[in-house]
Structures are given as C-alpha cells and as structure tokens.
Amino acid sequence: MRVRMGIAIAAAMAMALAACGPKADGPDVTVRALYEPYLKGPGAETPPFDTLDVYTPELKAEIDKAATYASLLDQPVIDADPVIMAQDWEIKAVTVAPVAPVSGDTAQVAARFDNMGHPTEILYDMRLVDGVWRVDNIALGADSLRSIIANALKPIGDPAAMEAPVRAVYTRYATDNDVEALHLWAPLTADLQRQMAMAAAMGRGGEAALLDFDPVVDSKSHDLGPVQYESASAGVITRFDNAREPKIVVYDVAQDGGVWKIANIRSPGHWDLQLKLSEAGIK
C-alpha cells in the first residue's frame, strides 16, 4: 500500500513540476520576430530566408532541395522572399496573431502588413518541434512555399518524352567508343544543330574542341556506368560515373517541330555549351 501511495505521490509531483516548468513561446512570437528586420526600412539588411533557423526539418529539407535544383537548372526555384512573398518591399504596420486559439502542437498564424501600399496577409502553418514553434509552410492566397517549390520543379512536359532525346545519346555512347560529333546525328534543336555545324565548319571541330572535352561524358574519353535520368522543369538531369568518377550533366530540352530535342548541355557550376558557343562568336 505504501509503495502504491509513493508512486502516486511521485507522479502527482512530476505533473505539478511540469505544469510549473518553462513553456514554449506562442507560435506568433516566432513569426513576429521574422518581420523585425523589415521594419527598419527598405535599406535595412534582412537575413536570407533560407538561413533562418525557424523551419521544421521537413520544410528546411524542401528549401535546401530548391537551392540544389536552382543550381542544377540554372534558374531560380524560389524567386521571391517567402516572408513577404515579394522581391521588393517597404513594410509597414505589421500585426501578427494566431488565426484560432492555440491547442495541441499545430497552429496557424496570420501576419498582416502593408507592403508598398498593398495590404498583404500571409499565413504560417506552425508546428511544435522539441518545445519550439517552427514554420512548416508559408502561404499567400493559393500559393504556398511548398507548392511554389513543387510547381517550379515539375517537368514542363511528359517526363518520358523529355528524356527520350537524352536517352538516345547515352544509348549510342554505351555501344560506341568512337562517337561522331553530336551535330551529325544527335536529336538537337534546329538552332543548336546549326550552331554546332557552324563550329565544325569554322575548323573548331565541334563541341569537343569548344570545351576541350566531350560534354556528354564531361571528359575527353568515356567509360560509362549506368545513367540515371530525372526530369525537372525544362531540364533532364543525368547522373552517372565515367571512369568511376561521378558526373552530373544537365540537358535543357525544348519542343522542336512537336518533338522534344536537346537545346543545351551544361555541367552546373563548371561549363555551359551555349555559353561556349557564344564566346566563340557562334549565335
């Protein structure tokens, strides 16, 4: 009996201590802090939204993915500051409050403000993570940060059709160790085929001479492993090993005469075939 009473008393004390212990700030506190830098005026420095330590792990993973694919595709995935859902700003009269009384570990907070004369309401989906309220999504009307990322990365056409010209290139490379210049056989757009033919006619020998290597394999020779294909936006991302060295080569594709063809070839952060053509005076 004493043992049972002791357990009951200990449990009651633990509950009392928990009730008296520190509690998480409300979700509106997290959101309100986001706007403080903007209230210093349009010339004030605001931290890049992707560096803020306010997101749930799931949303942070989406934001990091957007940054990675922006580099791969050479185009912005998130093209506005989601805290204000705009690129330009002059923020005034910010009010922040929960949409409904907070209960449990999720909440929604509304931030209302004037931006350059336009009334704006941004809704934050909040989730309690390890005792801290974190942002799980940001929305302006029907657009949310998650949907913006998803829509930006969605292939602009049927993925299989977009990948077809790129697969045709690697299929030939898998069986031919001495592949002819791309402009003689590859499914290129009319513009790229013309540019590559001009490069060859000018004695530059085609794409390999412009880059000093073969862009398909990002090397002077090829010993290809299996190729992985991924369609995103208007690009086809290929990942493979060449002579056991990991490679990423991205193909911009476009419809030409109703058929998907290759419009450019790039190694993100390293080289760009269209840029090399332009530098050589071929446009």
Quick take:
Helices cover 35% and strands 27% of the residues. The protein has helices at residues 2-20, 27-35, 57-73, 145-153, 159-175, 190-204, 207-211, 273-279; strands spanning 91-98, 106-115, 118-129, 132-140, 143-144, 228-232, 235-242, 245-256, 259-267, 271-272.
Main features:
283 residues, alpha+beta, 5-stranded antiparallel β-sheet, 10 strands, disordered N terminus
Describe the structure in your own words.
By secondary structure, the protein is of the alpha+beta class. It is 35% helix and 27% strand. The protein has eight helices and ten strands. The strands form two sheets. Strands 1-2-3-4-5 form a five-stranded antiparallel β-sheet. Strands 6-7-8-9-10 form a five-stranded antiparallel β-sheet. A hairpin with a 7-residue loop joins strand 1 and strand 2. The protein starts with a helix and ends with a helix. The N terminus is likely disordered.
